[in-house]
TrEMBL record:
This is VOC family protein. It comes from the Bacteria. Pfam families: Glyoxalase (PF00903). Residues 4-124 form the VOC domain. InterPro entries: Glyas_Bleomycin-R_OHBP_Dase, Glyas_Fos-R_dOase_dom, GlyoxalaseI/FosfomycinResist, VOC_core.
Length: 127
């Protein structure tokens, strides 16, 4: 019945701060929809930023900044990702550590966005 994910909404307290983080730190392309919604392109999926004070409807019953726990796949080796984060002064909260991903074992780094959302950046384990 379902074939995949189109977009995922991330509730944020400051759109410009979130856009800066996700574009500068994670390299996502930005597509502005309006002043209260911005899409960050991740392959064929959009991470849609919604401002907490938006009147856009429908929306989640309790949109809460900092409540998301999201795992993203990296094209780069995690050592390069870690060096990039360090160069930008972004703290790695945990990792690299081994975890179980959707299709098998992964190695992951954990960090937080400006609203406290937990972001896991992962790579598949080498066979």
């Amino acid at each position: 019945m379902l074939s995949g994910l189109d977009h995922l909404v991330i509730t944020v307290t400051d759109i410009s701060r979130a856009v800066d983080f996700y574009s500068r730190v994670l390299g996502l392309e930005v597509r502005y929809r309006d002043g209260e919604r911005v899409d960050l392109l991740l392959g064929d999926i959009a991470l849609r930023l919604h401002w907490t004070a938006t009147d856009v409807t429908p929306r989640a019953a309790t949109p809460t900044p900092g409540s998301l726990d999201l795992c993203l796949r990296s094209l780069l080796p995690l050592e390069e990702v870690q060096r990039h984060l360090e160069a930008l002064g972004v703290e790695v909260e945990l990792g690299p550590v081994t975890r179980q991903g959707a299709t098998g074992e992964i190695t992951s780094l954990y960090l937080r966005d400006p609203d406290g959302n937990l972001l896991e950046i992962s790579r598949p384990m080498k066979p």
